[in-house]
Specification:
The complex is a heterodimer of chains A (338) and B (399). By secondary structure, chain A is α/β, with parallel strands linked by helices. Helix content of chain A is 37%, strand content 17%. With 399 residues, chain B is of the alpha+beta class. Classes of the chains: A alpha/beta (338), B alpha+beta (399). The interface between A and B is large, with 56 and 50 residues.
Chain lengths: 338, 399
């Protein structure tokens, strides 16, 4: 690049540069704290409760990772970001791990220089409207005002969908889920669109959730997954296998409650490998052999995390759907630990 | 070295130290040193940024500007859709910035001048009311005013279906103000041409009136003649040609109004908040400018027999302007730059398009930020260039 060579030449006077360190795993261990990038607030996924403690689906994965890497699930510093600031926060080193209901896409992987670790929630973009409008399908939304979070894949899907349907709409761009909620409830927009899970979570915070419906159309694939900076394979391996271990744990019935007991008397070799009774899988990813045991004990396996934060017994009330294990009719499938 | 020679040589120490004791040379040395430090610092920052971008494998490039933006913009004065390029999206945003800055400056100037003059009123109530207006507005951060205005419009006005209507052609709702748009017939051109001729005619008449005044001292009624030429004459032509103008009235259709023009609540909130906030500063500037004119000038004008309004128009204002214009320039620049707060309420200005969505969807932080900063710099330099020209055109001509 010509511009860049000029920039570098202009920097002839400069001293040594501080470059973002590539050894994140060592840095995190040394600092004794995991900086985890989450959303500024989305009930069910990442939000602070009345006591100021972070809670939610994504938050629990952050804690599990901290438990695996640092031995304590509370050694997490949460970095709240908007849809716009999340990637900058990661690439600038403000956070080391991103769990922020972020859609895995090719351009983000390749062009934004992220490494995605897998998928922790299979989602799709939906629409929420007030029942009073009498709308039953997204195809009836011609001319509507649509609230949309800027800097998201949903913004792009929305443009594509209305274009493909030959319909017009007024985009009402907003920054955070909270602003969207305010604008939607005050009637600035007729429709709020984001990931279906986010809509359900937002609706749960309304005064009268029953007055609002999610339209049947799901207009996109939104595989939400965690990410780290590209080019740090050791860190990517460690964090990726924590996610896989939590999914595997559900498959083999390892829960927060029975993990210690299973580690002592592993019922089968798969469980023995996960919980560190056999092999040296922890060492392969730069951790010790109890890494997965600690991660599971921090907040339970994938199913426990899901049920506690999003499941049918919560206010949000989401079914597992696609996010059920592959053996239960879903598509959740983690590579084996062996 | 002996003690004697040491004390001896103090006034004219040899070599480099002698330069340091020369005050002129010392200044040069300090300046060279300062500049070197500044360059080193800037160089270091640039190098650091380049090295960091390199470390995460990102390259600098502006190709993304010519790729489809893929997002929609709700207020666009150009032909724009989601297939248009990022460059076009930036242009749309820039025009929206110009619109809000232009409207804001216009309203802020008018309101600010009125408030500034009223602030000097001898009427106690008026004086105090304007005082409260100024202090109230300028002592609250402008971002809060923007959010307040937007929140007020969005939550207090009814939904489009229950929109407040004025004469069934203007509608006020939380989606903005819908108003009729003109739909001219071919004959309407006659009216426009007469209107333009009226402007030219009134300019000619103004020059003629000045000449008459210079030669005979007689003052011709420039204002009334101009009004007649610019407004009266086109109106006559308009009616003579049979009112060749239809109005496209907005009508409720589905979710929103169709037809006519719409002013979005974001534009209203942003313009009003910026304009009123800045008008408080302008009011103080205007007051300072008027007070800066020595009272003797007023007395001298009265002694010459000038009436009050002529005194203000011919003596006070021209001298006050010299004091008002430089700080006024700063206020205009502030307003323009503050318009970047648009993002807070989702008004799609240049910061929200190029510096917001495009930046985020393409991941080109460095390039987008450089461009946005360069654009604001150019706008500000243009405004301040114009104001400097205006300032030098009204400055005191010493004879």
């Amino acid at each position: 690049m010509k511009l860049k060579s000029i920039l570098v030449a202009g920097a002839a006077l400069a001293m040594t540069a501080t470059v973002a360190n590539a050894a994140t795993l060592e840095d995190v261990k040394a600092s004794g704290e995991l900086n985890c990038i989450v959303t500024t607030g989305l009930v069910g996924f990442a939000y602070t409760d009345a006591n100021g403690r972070w809670n939610g689906f994504d938050v629990d994965f952050c804690r599990a990772t901290a438990a695996a890497v640092l031995g304590d699930g509370d050694k997490v510093k949460f970095v709240p970001t908007t849809g716009k600031t999340r990637f900058t926060a990661l690439s600038s080193g403000e956070g080391d791990l991103l769990y922020r209901n972020t859609t895995v896409t090719m351009s983000r992987d390749a062009d934004l220089k992220l490494t995605f670790l897998g998928v922790n929630y299979y989602d799709g973009q939906g629409f929420m409207v007030n029942k009073a409008l009498g709308v039953t399908s997204a195809k009836q939304l011609n001319g509507a005002s649509v609230c949309i979070q800027t800097g998201t894949t949903t913004e792009l899907n929305l443009a594509d969908y209305f274009r493909a349907q030959g319909m017009s709409y007024e985009p009402v761009p907003i920054e955070t889920n909270e602003e969207a909620r305010t604008n939607y409830l005050s009637g600035r927009c007729d429709v709020y669109t984001t990931d279906a899970s986010g809509l359900a979570a937002t609706r749960a915070t309304f005064e009268n959730p029953k007055d609002h419906i999610l339209l049947p159309e799901i207009i996109s694939k939104e595989p939400l997954g965690p990410a780290v900076r590209q080019g740090d394979d050791a860190w990517a391996d460690a964090t990726r296998w924590v996610l896989n271990a939590l999914i595997e744990a559900e498959e083999y019935g390892i829960t927060a409650a029975n993990a210690d007991e299973m580690a002592a008397n592993p019922p089968n070799p798969n469980i023995a490998r996960i919980l560190g009774a056999e092999g040296n899988y922890g060492e392969m990813i730069g951790l010790d052999n109890q890494w997965a045991l600690r991660a599971i004990k921090a907040g339970g396996n994938y199913g426990e995390i899901f049920d506690r934060n999003l499941g049918p017994n919560t206010e949000i009330g989401l079914e597992r759907g696609l996010n059920a294990l592959w053996s239960n009719g879903g598509i959740l499938y983690a590579p084996p630990i062996r | 070295m002996s003690v004697a020679s040491d004390t001896d040589s103090t006034p004219q120490r040899g070599g480099i130290m002698r330069l340091w004791y020369d005050s002129e040379a010392r200044q040069v040395i300090i300046q060279i040193f300062t500049i070197a430090v500044i360059f080193a610092l800037v160089g270091y920052l640039i190098h650091n940024a380049a090295a960091n971008l390199d470390a995460i494998g990102k390259t600098l490039g502006f190709d993304f500007l010519f790729q489809p933006a893929n997002y929609d913009i709700n207020q666009s004065f150009l032909e724009y859709d989601s297939r248009s390029t990022n460059l076009k999206a930036a242009a749309v945003g820039l025009i929206n910035t110009f619109l809000v800055a232009g409207l804001g400056i216009l309203i802020a100037t008018v309101v600010g001048f009125i408030m500034g003059v009223l602030r000097l009123s001898k009427n106690f109530l008026m004086n105090r009311l304007v005082y409260c207006y100024v202090e109230g507005l300028r002592n609250v951060p402008v971002l809060l005013w923007i959010l307040l205005m937007h929140g007020f419009i969005v939550t207090n006005l009814p939904s489009p279906k229950q929109a407040l209507s004025l004469n069934d052609s203007f509608f006020f709702s939380n989606r903005g103000i819908n108003m009729p748009s003109p739909d001219p017939h071919p004959l309407f051109w006659a009216t426009i041409i007469v209107f333009l001729l009226g402007i030219i005619g009134s300019l000619i008449f103004k020059n003629y009136a000045k000449k008459v005044q210079d030669e005979t001292g007689k003052i011709l009624p420039v204002l009334y003649v101009s009004l007649g030429l610019i407004i009266g004459l086109p109106l006559i032509v308009y009616f003579l040609t049979g009112m060749p103008l239809d109005w496209n009235t907005p009508a409720m259709q589905g979710f929103n109004f169709k037809g006519g023009y719409v002013v979005k609540p974001e534009l209203i909130a942003l313009t009003l908040a910026l304009a009123l906030y800045t008008s408080a500063f302008i009011a103080e500037t205007v007051r300072a400018g008027i007070l800066a004119v020595n009272y003797g000038q007023t007395e001298a004008a009265s002694a010459l027999g000038l009436r009050n309004n002529r005194t203000l128009q011919l003596v006070i204002i021209p001298q006050a302007m010299r004091v008002i214009v430089p700080p006024l320039t700063s206020q205009y620049l502030n307003l323009t730059k503050n318009s970047s707060l648009a993002i807070a309420i989702g008004y799609m200005d240049i910061t929200a398009t190029l510096g917001g969505i495009t930046l985020n969807q393409t991941g080109r932080e460095m390039e987008c930020m450089i461009l946005v900063m360069a654009i604001y710099l150019c706008i500000s330099l243009a405004v301040s260039g114009f104001m400097n020209w205006y300032n030098s055109s009204i400055k005191l001509i010493e004879r």
